[in-house]
Amino acid sequence: MSEELLSYEPASGEELWRAPVSNVDQEVPIARAAWPEWAAKPLTFRSETLRRFADRVKAEGEKLADLIARETGKPLWEARTEVESVANKVDISVTAYAERTPNRRIEGAMGLRNAVRHKPHGALAVLGPYNFPAHLPNGHIVPALLAGNSVIFKPSEKTPAVGAMLVDLFHSAGVPKEVLRLVVGGPDTGKALAGHPDIDGLLFTGSARTGLALNRQFANRPDKILALEMGGNNPIVVWDTADIRTAAILVVQSAFLSAGQRCTNARRLIVKEALADGLIEQVRDLANRLIVDHPHAEPAPYMGPVIDNDAADGLTESFLILMSNGGQVIRHMTRPVPGRPFLTPGIIDVTAMPERPDIELFGPLLQVIRVESFEAAIAEANNTSFGLSAALIGGSPKLYDQFWANARAGVINWNRPTNGASSAAPFGGIGLSGNYRPSAFYAADYCAYPVASSESDSMRASIGVGLRETDDGKPKLIRKGFL
Ligand SMILES: NC(=O)C1=CN([C@@H]2O[C@H](COP(=O)(O)OP(=O)(O)OC[C@H]3O[C@@H](n4cnc5c(N)ncnc54)[C@H](O)[C@@H]3O)[C@@H](O)[C@H]2O)C=CC1
Ligand SMILES: O=C(O)CCC(=O)N[C@@H](CCC(=O)O)C(=O)O
Hints:
Mean pLDDT: 95
Number of domains: 2
Bound molecules: 1,4-dihydronicotinamide adenine dinucleotide, ligand LFNQLBSZ
Number of strands: 21
């Protein structure tokens, strides 16, 4: 009997889905054999096939949203926005492919020309996270297929049902089954896929811990493309503003959207001392009112559960560790439903903590740091090895210029939350947040490589200097010219 992977609904604990763990050695050769034929199709064929996929996603949108909500625990309204992003990805990727990887002809002297065109890598592996089980892997899969690659996709072991439905939707739209393969399994299957000799690259979204392991695994493989999108320890800085209420809403949205399970969620609120008490009161007041409930509940919740009990245990434990190391509790993180991973938002002032851990606490947990000067705020914002998103709330155009110039992150916002990044812009981070291969609009860059060609319709050759002519027996030097 082959080993099975089971998935459970976080909100209820009920089993949702099960399937045998895949054999990577069977799946990779199928995708590898399939890519040349797919790549040889006209680009319009591939883009039209993917547009049919977008239509299939829209047609099955409610079913997909329901499954996402069940398998991740995120509220149904939020799962619907994920479905929308999945469908929108196709047109955005078609535009991105044309803009980021256009064919170019550079005319030279005497009828010579240089051409720049792009080729797919071949068979690419995609490893997905659980927090956006459709949208984020889709953000690799669509541009990869569009560029002519085949894809072997392993969804997170926590959200395999959504991964399987996504792959079915591609197939039902006409993407050949051999060109997109689903691989079911956990970290060991991920490792086997990443280490398979026949993949031409790996597109990863997930934690820094896994990303670092993959980076080591690929250390002596410069021949394989590796795109890493990892976590963050993101700062939100609140500075001079009279509109504390709106600032508080932006903080809550940044910290607690998706129950804090977005790589772009704000983990650290850095606030001017003079504003701190007023702002914290408003943030706590809003956090008290956030509905934490089942994804399908009415009235609709702001937050569902986190992904599982292990994650919830880890977060409540982290809250206790911050408390016992000098953090001052502003709002306790609690477990309102015994035995299930629902969490209420936790807020803790860590200003007095001597050594703050620089780790991504992937849940509804916000740390507050009070500072006296804007320079100290920027230093605090940069006091992390990650660098995904950062936001300034309030201030002035001049302060924003200073913040933008000095904050180290791939997403830097002003008077907007740290999350909710646009798919029409590049998306990625620096430091432990990524490896300078931003995704979203720039995913086109890592899905194809440029080929430069010098071309002429007729043969052209020249010998520069140093050719000895022997026909008349007298040495002669031809300095330059076409023969
Ligand atoms: N920067 C970005 O775009 C995003 C980053 N994330 C990050 O993802 C994390 C949450 O997702 P998780 O599913 O917990 O991430 P994870 O790193 O645990 O898993 C991601 C994928 O890698 C696989 N995997 C795990 N260990 C592996 C190994 N040693 N070798 C190969 N594959 C392995 C898993 O099975 C899964 O498919 C957070 O840290 C979050 O910040 C999530 C979304 C977006
Ligand atoms: O990938 C895109 O198309 C845009 C980037 C995006 O969706 N970012 C999300 C966070 C993704 C995550 O946490 O997993 C956002 O900024 O909210």
